[in-house]
Amino acid sequence: MNHSRRRFFKLCGAGAAGATAISLGFAPSVAQAAQVRQYKLLRATETRNNCTYCSVGCGMLLYSLGDGAKNAKKRIFHVEGDPDHPVSRGSLCPKGAGVLDYIHSDQRLKYPEVREAGTNEWKRITWDEANERIARLLKDDRDANFIERNDKGELVNRWLSSGMLASSAASNETGVLDFRFARALGMMGFDCQARLCHGPTVAALAPSFGRGAMTNHWVDIQHANVILVMGGNPAEAHPVGFKWAVEAKIHNKAHLMVVDPRFNRTAAVADFYSPIRAGSDAAFLMGVVNYLLSNDKIQHEYVKAYTNASLIVREDYAFDEGLFSGYDADKKVYDRSSWTYETGADGYALKDETLQHPRCVINQLKQHVARYTPEMVHTICGTPVEDFLHVCEQLATTCVPNRTATFLYALGWTHHTAGAQIIRGAAMIQLLLGNVGMPGGGVNALRGHSNIQGYTDLGLLSTRLPGYMNLPQDHQQTLDGFLAATTPKAELPGQVNFWKNTPAFFVSLMKDLWGEHATRENNWGYDWLPKWDRSYDMLAYFDLMYRGKVNGYIAQGFNPVAAMPDSRKVRDALSKLKFLVIIDPLQTETSTFWQNHGEFNDVNPADIQTTVFRLPSSCFAEENGAIVNSGRWLQWHWAGQEPPYEARHDGRILGGIFMRLRELYQTEGGACPEQVLNMRWDYHNPFDPHPEEVAKEANGYALADLYDDKGQLILKKGQLLSDFGQLRDDGTTASYCWIFAGSWTEAGNQMARRDNTDTGLGNTPGWAWAWPANRRILYNRASLDPAGKPWDPKRQLLHWDGKKWAGADVADYPAGSPPNSGVSPFIMLPEGLGRLFSAKGMVDGPFPEHYEPTESPLAANPLHPKVSKSPVARIFADDAARIGTRENFPYVATTYSITEMFRHWTKHSRLNAIVQPEQFVELSEKLAAKKGIKAGDVIKVSSQRGFIRGKAVVTKRVMTLQVDGQELEQIGIPCHWGYEGTTRKGFLANTLSPGIGDANAQTPEFKAFLVDVEKA
User: Are residues 151 and 266 in the same domain?
Assistant: First the structure.
């Protein structure tokens, strides 16, 4: 047979193994198969779920057979798209179409197992034995290494010698249990997938707009007039969500532009493509800012009313030759005190509404970006001047009120040493153009994993708390001191400054965590929270592990050997552990890092003394719960079958270990038992918490009768909260995550709603529930001028009805503040204004600046040769010794994903493995000719950290660029293969990438590093 890829997926889209075989001609007839399948569907149970892969959150219908009789358990046999879903409308991409093969993969783990230290085999054990042994190892290590007080005598109650990695596709409810489990033990080495993907989004967008999330939503993309895809490839990574960009092209005549190191599948359907050197995006975007300001292509009324353009910057702020004011060369950190505004006698920021003052933000910005001329952009980026100007001109067309542009990006921006500052550049451009808060506008971060947005919301990072609050630091020894330091004061009079409610959010969290044990007398259990002295993010913690400072580790739904940079170092670090606990539905490279797989993992198991436990968990199709897509929609899904064999739900696994730990502390005592014993875990079945219980506590309860400021009863004691406005700082409310308040109310589970009525401009507020307060477009008050008149009457989201704001969306604004009230729309920021100047919000500068990647192909930064690279980027000594040079590794490598595969998951799915069975590397025709490489040859790609091999794909999609007077070659490396899975064995692409992260979020650099290429 000769089937095209399109034909293959059309036939295989049903996903059922039988239907697939029949469709491909391995059974009598397609027609007969279709008739049999339809009959089976009539007898099947239909269950609604959401795709487990990317963050589009496509709706799925799972069909299962089995009535619950003995030996007749429900089993999913068919999966298809949900036609009612407002985003996907029945569509599934190749990954989603093959999800049945993932659910029933022969790589699914079946039983609890242990690999004893130094052995070369798995041994099957019981769940009781696993829980007992793991609990004992955790307790003994905690008791021996717990730090009650630091060297200064400050109470810190932290545990550093064991840590945990949380998932990215498990439900919110599992995430809540992860947090409780880790913080009840005082763990600081606690992180999740957000550290490896979209951490810089939060670090950049929160200081720019107030929240660190996608500003709009998938369906809203259709309203854009100009779409810039840069730092992403949505046609490949988010195919179903990308249909809304195509809708904009077809129905709105949108101009779609792609700027990327490769001519990718998004570029193939774009109106315009331009190449760029990987790692130079900040220079490109600052060039756009310079163009807009130099050519007066900004929306003046919006900029004056809704940005901090007019605020006056402190006199001691400066930037010179690559350094901002306040730099400490010895500590390699900035004192950011000068990065703020001049204030008047009333304490508020001074402003010049004429924009003439030389130190007002807009003039400081003009001065900062003047160096980024089109010629300089070409020098740094390799982008032809005419291409760069085309992008500028198209974006500039949206500076008028009735046109909007949207930015779509993903890992291509976050996976950089300066990823957060790249995203800041996009935010600044959209503020200058007046595109934030507008339908078809905004800065839209396309999250990579199905629930990485939710896990970020839930605070599953080393120094975070739920709802984007921070864990206290060592020196914040009192609750009052902590709240004073973290609760901002308004920068301008009359502004909302919504973070002023931090005490209510925090105390309500404390009541949720510690329950009746949290009292006013003990500061709501404040001392039981572990305090931090430094970041224990994933890179930092694995460096500690590499140096023998960590004894135990838990990896839940996470494969760090395949996902983290410098895989060889990661494997060496794991070999120094005493014990490793894997909680996963699939076999992973992390679970078998001790096995010899030849050149793919050349180790001697006898030398590795790490005891490894492998615990089989459920997958998405086997759990109830909510996941949060890119557009902040909390979507509830239901299980279509029970976990197979002896696999258990994550909550049951955590519950079994935690309850055994509690028993040990109750009978034996130990280090700070209050942390363990006081953490609230009072579920109907604490060994197996129900997701519905956990979801309700994430929303929050009234712990006493609640009254409004007029004395009227709002809620009775024990009732679920309706919104975060009901939270109190007096201990009368409990809520795990304040931004989720309203997701499950007395009216029921709002996340399970399925009303797809379009209330206007593609908004479907009756479908699921979006944080905050079910708003679908953030900062939407900025879509109208201060008098309440829409900038574009055809895109009117809101209107003032005489008493309140109403319309197609929930106003992101005080409902009772009328037009011309003086209340600005960026209500989470203390100025109420979108920030062109980010003040103290970033660690590496209030304006973005181009710094060379840690491994740079250039001799020096053309802008300031003496400060070529970020002066505040953190790098550990072991990693610094593994940094390559341009002399030895002359080519730039960038990693990426392909349509048919999802990170390291779909290599376990037979359908996906058939379509993309083998590792390959893309390189230009010119480089291939230089190296004597032909298409299909096996090539070796090396960095300072190791090498991989793959088939050569010689293509025009990767181009030779002229950068700073030299020819520059880039190669593209897909990141999907490894030595476990259904695909052919391959090398881990992350063997090549360096162990350095974004200066703000410590997200690793995967998109611009140095390699050499040769024919193998």
Answer: no
